[in-house]
Each structure stands twice: as structure tokens, then as C-alpha cells.
Write a structure and sequence with these properties.
The chain contains 9 helices and no strands. It has 147 residues and is mainly α.
């Protein structure tokens, strides 16, 4: 048998395009759209955008870790989770973000459109018209997809 001629060919590797991150406006628009469509993954999207979690990290969240992150007292979390020992519950609290981290995340959440109700209620007619127009467009798009 002769030499393998395929080994003589030099093939260039395909260049991976670097993903372009979304702007704050694009992220807000995406979250608003998911919320308007009542997307069951809305909470996961919000966590991914606000916390920078990867898909596997979001799917790995447990009720215990969420209770700990929300500063629920370990005894109460123990009752909710029906743990027989406090040690099991407090094991989770080792992975809770610090107060500084939570403050930074709240600030990020506000930047992504999670502002106060007063701010949202204070939107002018222009903001309400935009929301209504988006909802109508989404309804029309949903109707086209069903056809």
C-alpha cells in the first residue's frame, strides 16, 4: 500500500465567530417579550441575564439554594425543605452570595428593567403604546405560527 494522500492536504480550521453580547436595551426587550408571551423559562432567562449563569448552572439551582440566597432563616428553610437536620440545610448557605454581590445584582436587575412599580406606572402614554404595540405584534406572530 502507498502513502495516505489525505495526509498531504492541509485544511484550514474554520474560524469561530466571537458572539456579540447584547446591549442592555436588547436584553430588556428579550425579557419583556418572554414575559408578554408567558414563557415558562422567563425566570431562567432573567437569572441568566442578571447573574451571568450558564444553562447548566440555571438548571442546577435548587429550592434550597434559592431560599438561602433570599436570606430565609435556616430553620424556616429547614421546615420548608423538610430536612431532618439543620446541618443539611446550612450546607447550602455556604454558597450564598455576599451582601455586596446581592446589592450589585439588584442594581443590575434595575438596569435590565426590573425597576419599581412607581417607575413603570409613571410611564407616559408613549411607553404604554409601545407595550400595547409589542403585544399586538406578538399576538399576530403567534397567530401566523399556528396557521
Amino acid at each position: 500500500m502507498g502513502p495516505n494522500v489525505a495526509q498531504l492536504v492541509k485544511v484550514e480550521r474554520a474560524r469561530r465567530k466571537r458572539p456579540e453580547p447584547w446591549s442592555v436595551e436588547e436584553a430588556c426587550s428579550f425579557l419583556e417579550s418572554a414575559q408578554l408571551r408567558h414563557d415558562y423559562l422567563y425566570c431562567a432567562y432573567a437569572l441568566i441575564l442578571a447573574l451571568g449563569l450558564r444553562k447548566g448552572e440555571v438548571l442546577g439551582l435548587t429550592c434550597a439554594s434559592l431560599l438561602a440566597a433570599l436570606d430565609v432563616h435556616p430553620r424556616i428553610a429547614m421546615q420548608i425543605l423538610r430536612h431532618s437536620e439543620i446541618a443539611v440545610t446550612t450546607e447550602v448557605s455556604n454558597h450564598v452570595p455576599s451582601a455586596d454581590t446581592r446589592r450589585a445584582l439588584r442594581k443590575l436587575g434595575k438596569a435590565l428593567g426590573g425597576g419599581s412599580k412607581q417607575k413603570k406606572e409613571g410611564q407616559g402614554k408613549k411607553g404604554k403604546r409601545k407595550q400595547q404595540k409589542r403585544a399586538e405584534e406578538q399576538t399576530a406572530e403567534d397567530g401566523r405560527q399556528e396557521s
